[in-house]
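Technical annex, item 7. During the second reporting period the consortium partners agreed on a shared format for inverse folding records so that results from different sites could be compared directly. Each record opens with the tokenized structure and is followed by the designed sequence. A conforming record, contributed by the partner at site C, is shown below for reference.
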């Protein structure tokens, strides 16, 4: 597969009403559509132009716009339901294009890849109460169900836009809710974000006398790393968000008349458009003998000869962190805006602010390594004992040139249990693959990471190759999974420990061949 061709699945990358509507229309280009005009009442309607024989389309309750599929120009209708889900080049787009409450049915995918999804009319994505879910590609190369999101339902008299049409409590006779709830928010990873009750509108003269905030973390965030709210019983509270994903925020307000009002919305933590972000977690990070597991990102080498790991072609803890001694890696990529790195933990944000910009690539955190051991009870992100996933970022990846992700089990620190690691890969802020999170985990055995304590194994997991391409709807990526078991004798040069030199092989050939003239990567 050549990365030069357009792929319509790129359209599910970013939240927001404007993106959802514009991209849902854009991505129907070339689709065969028929004429129909219906009003949404929870019925199935015939999209075959009134003559029968067409594909039925489910129109959820509350979908009060007319649907017109007769424009003939290849675009969808104003209500954006079309006769069948749009697979594009095969993988789909994460949207319920035919409005039948399932996403990308009939589309194929690469096993292990993951994507954001929305099981509702695409133009209602991230409007009102609605927020994205997540779906994963099964071993049978088909998408599983879209789960963990909030999708349109019938309106209730609660100040919430339940059917996600942009207006709360509409169409409800006699409804007089005392609250109007806000919409969703988007912030960058590694950001201190302020939750503010003033975003909630109280009506009818109601005033709040008490507050109770809660936050639910996405599945991709381990329980040990789910962030704490600084002041959960105040009108405002700060939360430091280390990992990407959709966080569900809720507030219960006690009103002056003794009643309560409740609101909930989603805070999306996402990297910038067109960026690459890789996050590494492992389940023995915060144990008393927290293991040292390291994230690596290797670039395609300009001379076409694959170099080893732990070189200047590999972004890792010794050359890619924000301080002056370990942040000097230069791949010729331009620096990016401070908003992408200015709040990095362990003092890294101060280092980036001193530089005045964010370097690319960069490793913000080396947990249980050069930054020291993490403590699960620490809540101050400026301290080295604060726990955070290791993450590598490139805000401006090169189109067509592959990048390779590797996880090295550097030291078990005397921990005798197995270590289960998982990696999440985000392109343009949207998750594109997750490996090791769901059982069976990718596991390093005790002794695999004993490099600093006399053991020669030092196992490594070569995770995946990632390639960016320019699609119909912007910059996106393809992810090629690689190893499923650790490779031995791949990582650190152990000669300094009196163990003899360890082979530092690059691993398997790249998943695609880079064509310099075409600036594209062609799948092997």
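Designed sequence (site C submission):
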């Amino acid at each position: 597969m050549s990365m030069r061709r357009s792929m319509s699945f790129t359209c599910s990358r970013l939240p927001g009403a404007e993106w959802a509507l514009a991209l849902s229309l854009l991505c129907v280009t070339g689709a065969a559509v028929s004429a129909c005009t219906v009003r949404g009442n929870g019925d199935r309607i015939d999209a075959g132009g009134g003559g029968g024989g067409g594909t039925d389309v489910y129109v959820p309750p509350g979908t009060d716009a007319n649907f017109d599929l007769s424009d003939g120009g290849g675009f969808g209708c104003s209500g954006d339901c079309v006769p069948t889900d749009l697979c594009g080049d095969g993988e789909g787009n994460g949207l319920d294009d035919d409005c039948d409450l399932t996403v990308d049915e009939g589309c194929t995918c690469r096993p292990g890849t993951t994507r954001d999804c929305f099981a509702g009319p695409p133009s209602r994505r991230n409007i009102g109460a609605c927020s994205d879910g997540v779906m994963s590609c099964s071993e049978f190369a088909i998408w599983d169900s879209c789960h963990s999101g909030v999708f349109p339902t019938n309106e209730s008299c609660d100040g919430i836009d339940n059917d996600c049409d942009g207006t709360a409590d509409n169409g409800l006779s006699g409804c007089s809710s005392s609250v109007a709830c806000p919409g969703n928010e988007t912030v960058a990873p590694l950001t201190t974000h302020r939750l503010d009750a003033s975003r909630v509108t109280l009506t009818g003269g109601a005033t709040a006398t008490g507050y109770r905030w809660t936050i639910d973390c996405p599945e991709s965030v381990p329980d040990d790393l789910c962030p704490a709210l600084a002041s959960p019983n105040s009108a405002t509270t700060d939360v430091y968000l280390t990992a990407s994903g959709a966080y569900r925020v809720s507030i219960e307000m006690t009103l002056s008349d003794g009643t309560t009002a409740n609101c909930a919305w989603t805070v999306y933590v996402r990297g910038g458009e067109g960026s690459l972000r890789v996050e590494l977690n492992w389940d023995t990070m915060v144990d008393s003998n927290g293991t040292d597991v390291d994230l690596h990102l290797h670039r395609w080498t300009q001379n076409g000869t694959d170099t080893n790991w732990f070189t200047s072609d590999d972004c890792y803890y010794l050359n890619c962190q924000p301080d002056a001694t370990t942040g000097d890696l230069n791949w010729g990529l331009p620096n990016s805006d401070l908003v992408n790195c200015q709040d990095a933990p362990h003092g890294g944000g101060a280092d980036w602010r001193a530089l005045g910009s964010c370097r690319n690539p960069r490793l913000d955190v080396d947990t249980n390594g050069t930054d020291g051991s993490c403590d699960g009870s620490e809540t101050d992100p400026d301290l080295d004992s604060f726990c955070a996933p290791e993450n590598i970022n490139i805000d401006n990846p090169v189109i067509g040139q592959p990048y390779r992700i590797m996880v090295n089990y550097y030291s078990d620190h005397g921990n005798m249990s197995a270590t289960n690691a998982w990696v999440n890969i985000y392109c343009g802020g949207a998750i594109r693959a997750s490996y090791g999170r769901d059982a069976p985990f990718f596991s390093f055995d005790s002794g695999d990471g004993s490099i600093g304590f006399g053991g020669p194994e030092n196992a490594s997991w070569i995770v995946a190759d990632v390639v960016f391409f320019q699609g119909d709807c912007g910059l996106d990526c393809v992810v090629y999974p690689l190893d499923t078991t650790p490779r031995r004798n791949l990582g650190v040069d152990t000669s300094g420990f009196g163990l003899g030199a360890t082979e530092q092989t690059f691993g398997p050939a790249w998943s695609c061949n880079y064509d310099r003239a075409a600036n594209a990567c062609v799948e092997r």
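The radius of gyration is 24 Å. DSSP finds two helices and 25 strands in the chain. All partners now use this format for quarterly exchanges.
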